[in-house]
Amino acid sequence: MTSKFKVGDRVRVIAPGKTYEHYNVKFNELGFKSIVENCSFGKHTLAEVFGVTLHDNPNYIETLVAIRDRFGNESLISETGIELIDEIEFEMPMTTNEVRLAYARKHYPIGTEYIPLDSDGRSYQNCYVSVHDPEFWEGSNIDTGSGLIYHYETNQWAEITKEVVKEKETVMKTQKLSRQGLKEIHEVACGNWKTVLGSYGFRNPFEDYVELTHDEVNEMFKACDTKQRTIVSRYLTVKAPKDFESIIKNIGPVRLHDLTQGLISTRVGGKHEYKAFVLDKQFDWIMDFDDNGFLCLVPTNKD
After folding, report:
1. In the predicted model, what is the mean pLDDT of residues 57-79?
2. How far apart are alpha carbons 227 and 145 in whole angstroms?
3. What is the DSSP code string of 201-235?
4. Pairing relationship of beta strands 149-151 and 135-137 according to DSSP bridges
5. Do 177 and 212 form a contact (C-beta atoms < 8 A)?
6. How far is CA 97 from CA 135, 146, 152, 159, in A?
7. Inter-residue contact 157 to 108 (CB < 8 Å)
8. How far apart are CA 12 and CA 47, in angstroms?
9. pLDDT of residue 146
10. Other C-beta atoms within 10 Å of 156: how many?
11. Can you tell me the distance from the alpha carbon of 270 to that of 276, in angstroms, rounded to the nearest whole number?
12. What pLDDT sits at residue 79?
């Protein structure tokens, strides 16, 4: 028997529909704890191979793989329903919120269709589309349509109904710093910054980069001397503050309603007559989603 999987391999489920929940003969042959019925793992479940065999029916040229998740649950699945993963990904401590979120952001990005959970961990009937990164949920209410929800009591993400679909089209709230760049910056850092940079290294554990907020990037640039700034500038860009309230305060004590009328107006002539808005040129403008999923046009201070 030839198979690309062997006992001890670490795998990820990619096609739950390839599972055999009732196959008593094979359960007994492979040493399953239950020889009556075994579960079907959800998509992206990580597991370890503990047995490999062939389907009994000669009309099925199919290799079956026995897998066990980190909680001891067992499942029998066709080899076409799983894929090999790196050892480091399997060993990540999925009990921590940071790693759970990193995993979810990699596999359930913005644009993923999903079914939200109710307060008891049961799935709603309607399908929604995630408009921002996955988040944790502890309360009794849920904002459907916002992001994928991780439910503490059931220890599962809201059910995924469709894989990834689109890239983020808005200006990101963070900057990506490659791990090579982080290493080079850490080598020239001094004092407390070595500790700070070291803590950044634990972010995005499944990626070859770490994400930093613009505030964190700005603080890094402020602390740099000339030599350090040269290296940091290879990998990061200093950004102007995006705090709308600070912009309003800098302009003066004006009511937001009046300020908005001054910042944006309808174009009433020229090429884009009644087809566009005119924006105040004293500001830079970005498109960004707010916490409720609304796409907003935000003025920012020019550099």
Report:
1. 89
2. 46
3. TTSSTTSSEEEEEHHHHHHHHHH--HHHHHHHHHH
4. parallel
5. yes
6. 10, 19, 10, 18
7. yes
8. 6
9. 63
10. 14
11. 10
12. 94
> 51 near 38, Cβ under 8 Å?
no
Averaged over 232-246, what is the pLDDT? 65
Q: Which residue has the tokens 């359960």?
A: 27
Judge whether 100 and 94 are in contact, CB under 8 Å: yes
CA distance 11 to 87: 9
What pLDDT, in 10s, does the model give residues 256-284? 444 444 567 667 667 777 677 778 777 77
Closest C-alpha to 12, from 72, 79, 64:
79
Say which DSSP state 43 is in.
T
Please say whether the beta carbons of 266 and 277 come within 8 A. yes
245, amino acid identity:
E
Cβ neighbours of residue 166 closer than 8 Å, sequence gap 6 or more: 110, 111
Measure the CA–CA gap between 155 and 50, rounded to whole angstroms: 24
